[in-house]
Amino acid sequence: MENLYQHGLPPKSRGPRLAVIGGGHGLSNMLRGLKRYTENISAIVTVADDGGGSGMLRQDLGMPPPGDIRNCLEALANTEPLMSELMHYRFTEGSLAGQSFGNLFLAALNGISPSFDAAVSRMSQVLAITGRVLPVTTADVQLEAEFENGASVVGESKIFYCKKKEDCRITKVRLLPEHPKALPEAVEAIRDADMIILGPGSLYTSIIPNLLVDGIVEAIQASRALKVYVANVMTQEGETEGYTASDHIAAIFQHSVPGLFDLCLTNSSPIPADVAARYAREGAEPLRYDAGRCAALGVELVSRPISMVEDGFVRHRPEELARELLLLHAERSVRIAGKNFRNDTYRME
């Protein structure tokens, strides 16, 4: 981390306050990098998932889906290797086949806690996490998607298959019931943040659902923090085939407000031809960065080499992504008279 400190960045304990909003593997992957540079992280996570092991626990126990929350807790955990291995363990036989121990542990904590967010807080203590993880809402919500041809489907896990069947773009998603109330701590984390980060992650199922919760968009709008959207490296089969960077941005603004953020971090690392070819066979491709259309939306693109190929899949490189975000904060943030945004300890040299 020497290169960061050469840019005047403070120690982890006095690092910038980050509010990171999203869900899925993209968010947890980025958190692994961010915790190397600052301890002041609030991960605000969607709870609209209804598939896989999370969906089973949601249906059987009537609790919010634990999967995305668990992934973020694991990413920020500071535990012994055995505990980390235990949290990742998935049962292979019987009625628990496919279910992770981490999900079950969080479900058990939910059973003995007064609320789901209290259960998440208790699990955070057990795992000695860096920062905190907050469900965006504790309401029991479902995600509905509408398509260009008028078709619609309810259920986050069904959107992929419905889009493949209808073969047209998603025009709108909504939460059912609409306008659930945000967790107060999530709103407070956004208000107190020095930097607000959206993504990376699935556009319609990981990022936008958070913006449909009452209080979240208003808190982002009111904040004077640096606001950055981290664009995906690739388009996503069953969700954003054919989308450009401006298409992603326009969809976010459509579901929130125009100008919610004015900076978009994109990837400049080349994608190997054989990997791109495999993605192409599935209808996905490297995200195209149409800077002119983005500028027309009031968003500046900043391109950095932040991707890698792992097990044949293109992902963000956690430490490089985190490093570039922290450097963006150092470069773009300014002192605001009379209010402590930690910039006094964040000298730019």
Report on the architecture of this protein.
There is one protein chain. The protein has 349 residues and is of the alpha/beta class. The chain has three domains: 1-46 and 177-338, Rossmann fold, CATH 3.40.50; 52-130, no CATH class; 142-173, no CATH class. It is 41% helix and 16% strand. It has helices spanning 2-5, 24-34, 52-61, 67-76, 81-88, 101-112, 116-126, 156-166, 184-192, 203-211, 216-222, 245-255, 273-281, 291-296, 318-332, and strands spanning 18-22, 41-45, 132-135, 142-147, 152-154, 170-176, 195-198, 226-230, 263-267, 300-304, 307-310, 313-316. Strands 3-2-1-7-8-9-10 form a seven-stranded parallel sheet, with helices on both faces. It has a three-stranded antiparallel sheet with strand order 5-4-6, covered by helices on one side. Helix 12 (245-255) links the parallel strand 8 (226-230) and strand 9 (263-267). Helix 10 runs parallel beside helix 12. It is globular and about 55 Å long. The chain starts with a helix and ends in a 17-residue tail after the last helix. Mean pLDDT is 92; it is low at 335-349.
